[in-house]
Amino acid sequence: xxxxxxxxxxxxxxxxxxxxxxxxxxxxxxxxxxxxxxxxxxxxxxxxxxxxxxxxxxxxxxxxxxxxxxxxxxxxxxxxxxxxxxxxxxxxxxxxxxxxxxxxxxxxxxxxxxxxxxxxxxxxxxxxxxxxxxxxxxxxxxxxxxxxxxxxxxxxxxxxxxxxxxxxxxxxxxxxxxxxxxxxxxxxxxxxxxxxxxxxxxxxxxxxxxxxx
Length: 213
What we know:
The protein folds into two domains: 7-28 and 126-198, no CATH class; 29-123, no CATH class.
């Protein structure tokens, strides 16, 4: 489909398609390792598997009770001066501050081992070389369609094909819609991995160039 295209460019396109799939369809979901709450500490690291980041927190619990997701601005309205000494209590809220950090509020008033449980939507980093085996296998065709649309729309290449890119763009978007439906229902913890470079080696279209077959 992209004769003479360098392998590194193909792998970059597969990675980008995989990241977009994980962001939009939310198919890569895991429960992170339990986190110990520390007295007087409100900032905690998110620690997803290697070469991934937390795109979104689906839910979080503290000592078995649901924590309410909240923005920093709204938290300041509900709990003014919540960081100050003397306002420690049992956490009721969490704030996803960044891909790697979240806050507990109120600030915990005691140290409690494995108190915080988090289920998160992950995505590969832009330097990753692999993704979960389940994601790469279950959504293989969608990822390949996403990679092809990126490659075929590159200007001035031997394989440039804007019409083909449009076809694969439509197929990729259809795949995202279906993947999102499945992503809402998934409860599988993903641990195995497959490298991007091995994804398309046996991919063949059996009818026409833009066939679904």
